[in-house]
Amino acid sequence: MTPIRSAALLTVLGALAALAAAFSAEWWGHLVPCPLCLLERWPYRIVLALGLIAFVLPGRAARAVLVLAFAAMLGGVMLGAVHVGVEQGWWPSPLPECAAPHLSGSIADRLAAMPLRPEMPCDTPVYVLGPVPLSLAALDLLYALAFSLFLLAAVTRPIPRRRIGGKGYA
Question: What parts of the sequence cross the membrane (predicted)?
Answer without folding.
Answer: 42-58, 65-86, 134-155
